[in-house]
Amino acid sequence: MSTSEVHSRGAALLRQRRYVTHSVKRLIDVIGASILLILLSPVFLIVSILVALDGGPVFYRHTRIGRHGVPFGCLKFRTMILGADHCLNEYLSYHPLAGEEWEREQKLTFDPRITAIGRFLRRTSLDELPQLVTVLYGDMSLVGPRPVTQGELRHYGNASAEYLSVRPGITGLWQISGRNDVSYAQRVALDQTYVSTLSVWRDLVILLKTPVVVFSKRGAR
After folding, report:
1. Where are the domains of the chain?
2. What per-residue confidence (pLDDT) applies to 63?
3. How many CB atoms lie within 10 A of CB 37?
């Protein structure tokens, strides 16, 4: 067998392995998201009431970039005030250091847009529960890289193709490695590591570690 044939056969086996991995991941996503939606339905109801009492819509849908670069609506419980975009632009115009932090990390240590109930939801990650519906639709996975906007893809540089080869996840290496205590550059590196070592077993480990990290509130803001 020639060298080219060996490489061709190896590439075919790799594609087959990744296809099986993605298929098993999808099966776990559908079963897992369905079970969690049923078990957490009382939590959904309580949080929905609390957010509604704050005024404004209960849910917030933001456009993120999914697998193969296809945009999708990432669903969350609303944690920000109405007119949040205008508030952010005005705040950054008056606070240059905050503007630098936003440009560098795409988040703020102090974010004036977050509501009182929103801070609680973010610290406990309850704001992300509606993403289970997005998982059922097939736009997200239970485990994967953090969903990003079109503008954030520039931070991934040459690694953007790797990022776009998988579905973004509700949880992932970033979430169990420090969340907001991790810099954006480290987050990109973690996403690269996840994609290059894609494994159902690693997904299961991440899923098991996620509740521990959430309850510890490590890196939560």
Report:
1. 26-79+114-216, 81-113
2. 92
3. 16
The answer to whether residue 97 scores a pLDDT higher than 90 is no
CA 124 to CA 219: how far, in whole Å? Answer: 11
> What pLDDT band is residue 88 in, cutting at 50, 70 and 90?
low
pLDDT of residue 6: 45
Residue 164's φ and ψ, nearest 5 degrees, are -80, -5
Q: Token pair for residue 26?
A: 């999808």
Cα 26 from Cα 32, distance rounded (Å): 10
What is the pLDDT confidence band of residue 89, given thresholds at 50, 70 and 90?
low
β-strand 169-171 against 141-143: which pairing, if any?
A: parallel
Question: What is the number of other CB atoms lying within 10 angstroms of the CB of residue 210?
Answer: 18
Residue with tokens 């697998």: 67
CA distance 174 to 178: 7
pTM: 0.81
